[in-house]
Write a structure and sequence with these properties.
The protein is mainly β and about 675 residues long. It is built from nine helices and 45 strands. The strands form ten sheets. Strands 6, 7, 8, 9, 10, 11, 12, 13, 17 and 18 form a ten-stranded mixed beta sheet that branches. Strands 41-40-43-44-38-45 form a six-stranded mixed beta sheet, with no helix packed on it. Strands 35, 36, 37, 39 and 42 form a five-stranded mixed beta sheet that branches. β32 and β33 form a beta hairpin. The chain binds (dicuprio-$l^{3}-sulfanyl)-sulfanyl-copper and dinuclear copper ion.
Length: about 675
């Protein structure tokens, strides 16, 4: 068996291999650059100018907390979706509308570390409705609407520290899950760290996710104080079950590198969540006080709101026999992946010498036959020999994650030996190997964790690039590699650098979402309190020391565009509405010295910038998003006078805007647009 010392040698060996391309295990079969795309590879990834990619791929931004959207097979970056981190490019988390999205019990958290994008599913197949993603640091899950590519909902997970095994979905997306990576004292009490074994607990949360705007924690299962790593739902015959990997069943609380690698086997936890639902329906759940936030972005107003929740329903598995079982699994298992048929649960025994595969039907039989090997904290432990379907022998070093092609083959990432290994379900024989550069973490096949994988490609999401790209100082580019899996042998097609650590990814055929894109927000339905629907509705109002400015943005001016009457000591809110009703006509708004960011307004949307001027004077503002040939003319001024000054409130519209408004309102007797005064009304 592998000893920890032996392990360290392996890990060091891998680093050397990656660094120098020296002979070491799989690296011995190649040197960097070999096995590279040859023949028709270029044409297989070439998407001619003006044509679309075949797949949307959603790559986690890792510790930038966001999501990168790429086209496959070209690897072209299409968009960056702001989720857990503020983004000055879009104003996400800086403007008044989206600030509440980042609210947590720890305050407004402006960043996170996101790992796993997960597409919503119907009948076990990605359906293109939503994309979920987890936050590791301050445990949260988010929903991205795939008609707008905007984050519309974020839910905090209480009683959890490290939302790593998340947000994997059930086949109907009724639930997504989040399990705590770090066990913690429940209610995070002030206890000695050395009391880990007595006081620290894990939790596995089932989050209701099928109703947009209404995500909530359905229940939390209290688990022993291990580390929880990853999870995947059952499907087909195993529908109704969820599987999680654990490590540190040693329950070490120091030097885990060594102390959490003692046991030959840790556990895969099998959770019967339908049984858990029943148990709760029978009143066996316990509501405990727990504070967490639920933040929702309203589509019509564009305004996010935060709601603080105060309790969760928890379930102690000992109160509900049959809800949780442990399957011994070698050795600090990492990934757990369920094959398309739903019969096999593949563990990435990251320190193991084999890839262990459990059988769902054997597991059910073992439970019925009571083939137990004792219990841990009241949770029955099944016999390894009773659940194991097979082991993939000599797969490579450091197996982490497995995805499937839907043709009976599995593909596993090998972190230490830097390769992707193809093997056959049922016979467990290794069929092919592809070296990758370097140290692959997750891998992704479009639909490869679902009931019906689209197959065709596997994307290798690498941790290290070393010599693959032009060097860029101490930190080198992050990287993904696209491999063709349509034939018997894998073929390397493309390296492409990514923004952020491409931790995990999901992909689906473009057809599923491309025609459902929202082109603009309907101005008539905009229910923002700051909205203006025409240039004549703009203006400036004062309420004590608060000044609200409502503005329209339209090619290529702001209305109003000159503002006076602001005083030092005021807090100013610019509510800017893009009154265009045309696809892709976006305007920006930036004012000199603003401490937050610019505003970016999609057509039909209102965004609000809070601004506290620090000195008297005149400040220009301008449009930041290139919108027309006269974009550079899209500007204005705001005058700031001393506190108590008698400069009246004034909101002017430019000559050009006046002329346009005169045309637009010709026939109407409304003359309210020229240099009109503030109404003084409260908003
Ligand atoms: S898991 S280290 Cu996605 Cu391999 Cu996080
Ligand atoms: Cu509007 Cu540039």
């Amino acid at each position: 068996m592998t000893t920890p010392k032996h392990l360290r040698t392996l890990l060091l060996g891998a680093a050397t291999c990656a660094a120098a391309g020296l002979a070491f295990y799989a690296c011995s079969t190649t040197t960097a650059g070999a096995n590279l795309a040859s023949g028709d590879a270029a044409s297989k990834v070439y998407v001619p100018p003006g044509q679309y990619d075949q797949y949307y791929a959603f790559l986690s931004g890792g510790y930038n907390g966001q999501i990168g959207v790429y086209g496959l097979p070209s690897g072209r970056l299409l968009k960056f979706v702001s989720v857990f981190s503020q983004n000055p490019e879009t104003g996400w988390g800086y403007n008044e509308e989206t600030k509440p999205m980042l609210q947590t019990t720890y305050g407004n958290i402006p960043w996170d570390d996101s790992h796993h994008p997960e597409l919503s599913q119907t009948n076990g197949v990605p359906d293109g409705r939503w994309l979920f993603i987890n936050a590791n640091n301050t445990p949260r899950v988010a929903r991205v609407d795939l008609t707008t590519f905007e984050t519309t909902e974020i839910l905090q997970i209480p009683n959890s520290a490290g939302g790593h095994a998340s947000p994997f979905t059930t086949p109907d997306s009724k639930y997504i899950v989040s399990a705590t990576r770090f066990s913690i004292p429940m209610h995070n009490a002030d206890v000695p760290i050395a009391s880990y074994k007595q006081n620290f607990k894990g939790t596995v949360s089932f989050i209701r996710a099928d109703q947009p705007g209404k995500m909530d924690i359905a229940f939390q299962i209290l688990m022993p104080g291990y580390n929880y790593d990853l999870g995947h739902a059952g499907k087909g015959p195993s529908d109704g079950w969820f599987f999680f990997t654990t490590y540190n069943t040693e329950q070490a609380n120091e030097k885990l590198e060594l102390n959490a690698s003692q046991n030959d086997k840790d556990f895969m936890a099998a959770v019967n969540y339908r049984a858990a639902e029943q148990c709760i329906a029978q009143g066996k759940g316990k509501s405990i006080p727990s504070e967490y936030y639920h933040n929702v972005l309203d589509e019509k107003s564009g305004q996010a709101t935060s709601e603080k929740k105060t309790s969760v329903v928890t379930l102690d598995p000992t109160a509900c026999p049959g809800v949780v079982y442990f399957l011994p699994t070698p050795k600090s298992p990492h990934g757990v992946d369920v094959d398309p048929s739903g019969e096999y649960m593949v563990a990435g025994g990251k320190l193991a010498t084999v890839i262990p595969v459990h059988s769902f039907s054997k597991m059910i039989k073992a439970i019925a036959d009571k083939q137990f090997d004792g219990s841990e904290y009241g949770i029955p432990v099944l016999k390894y020999s009773a659940t194991i379907a097979g082991e993939v022998q000599k797969p490579g070093l450091g197996p982490l994650h497995t995805e499937f092609d839907g043709k009976g083959n599995a593909y596993t990432s090998m972190f230490i030996s830097s390769e992707i290994v193809k093997w056959k379900l049922g016979t467990w024989e290794v069929l092919d190997r592809m070296p990758v550069y370097y140290s692959v973490g997750h891998l992704m096949i479009p639909g490869g964790d679902s009931k019906k994988p689209w197959g065709q490609y596997v994307l290798s999401l690498n941790k290290i690039t070393k010599d693959r790209y032009l060097p860029t100082g101490p930190e080198l580019a992050q990287s993904a590699q696209l491999i063709d899996i349509s034939g018997n042998k894998m073929k390397m097609l493309l390296d492409f650098p990514t923004i952020g650590e491409p931790h995990y990814a999901q992909a689906l055929p473009a057809e599923l979402i491309k025609s459902r894109q929202l082109k603009f927000y309907k101005l008539a339905e905009n229910s923002s309190t700051g909205v203006v629907r025409s240039e004549s509705e703009g203006g400036i109002t004062r309420t004590g020391k608060r000044v609200d400015i409502k503005m329209a943005a339209i090619r290529s001016h702001f209305a109003p565009d000159n503002l006076e009457g602001v005083q030092l000591g005021d807090t100013v809110y610019f509510h800017v509405t893009n009154i265009e009703q045309d696809w892709d006509i976006v305007h920006g708004f930036a004012v000199q010295g603003a401490e937050n960011a610019e505003l970016i307004m999609a057509p039909g949307a209102t965004r609000t910038l809070k601004w506290i001027p620090k000195a008297t004077g005149v400040y220009p503002f301008y449009c930041t998003d290139f919108c027309s040939a006269l974009h550079q003319e899209m500007q204005g001024y705001v005058r700031v006078s001393p506190a108590g000054s008698n400069v009246p409130l004034m909101a002017n519209v430019s000559k050009k805007a006046q002329a346009q408004m005169a045309n637009a309102t010709a026939g109407r007797k409304d003359d309210s647009h020229a240099g009109h005064q503030a109404s003084g009304k409260e908003r």
